[in-house]
């Protein structure tokens, strides 16, 4: 978090996106090279993982690299074709990761990016009308998904338990209820069969290192206070997004911040990344601070 604060204080919006692009320009090609030529490191029978710990993290991080490429503003002629190559490499790596979570996250990110771009281009009245129209449509789609969930999950290779996630969630929640206020300490819960995670590991049947949910893991580690802090950060980011969405000269950067934050919130439903020293959490903190700065600038300008 301190490093994220340092980056946001040291670089302007475009400079921050430049750094993320540079990181992806190293990580994405390196991941593809490892998967193709050193598969013992960069690939598994379940899919490519590259320089990342597992394929889900690979797909999640590369999705944010892809989002950054979409919102990044090239300032040189050569950068435009290079960005196109970069986008293709990101798509290839996400697809070859075979992570269904990553595929859905990519679709969500691209749809959200396009929707936010459209809302910023429309007049305020038209945007408000479009949002009101979208609410029943989205609600209907969610209801339809609930009715067809079994068939849809089977199509993407998942069972009704989401590969035992629901079983793990229930066991982890029971552990949360034993220490709901203070939790077990940062990275102190998952100790295999030797620590407090014993019951969850035995129920799952394999050596877990996470609750398959960032929200549950945060509660297990820091207690309810950690969840409240995350909720307050997210709430503040939402307020800042509304304040800066239209009255800003960095509209593309504001969209990037919103997409990064929402992608993290969605990703952590089925994976754990909140508070860990990983690229997704770093970008989440940077995006929240970025929205705060843009909201303050918008308030001064308007």
Folded structure, characterized:
With 302 residues, the protein is mostly helical. The protein has a domain at 122-160. The protein is built from 13 helices and 2 strands. It has a two-stranded antiparallel sheet. Strand 1 (43-44) and strand 2 (47-48) form a beta hairpin. It is globular. The two termini are 30 Å apart. The mean pLDDT is 89.
Describe what is shown at a glance.
The protein is an all-alpha fold. The protein has helices at residues 2-10, 13-37, 39-42, 55-71, 79-96, 100-121, 124-147, 149-155, 165-178, 198-204, 214-244, 251-270, 279-301; strands at residues 43-44, 47-48.
Can you give keywords for this protein?
single chain; 302 residues; mainly alpha; 73% helix
* CA distance, first residue to last residue: 30 Å
Helix content range: over 70%
What is the SS-derived class?
mainly alpha
* Total strands: 2
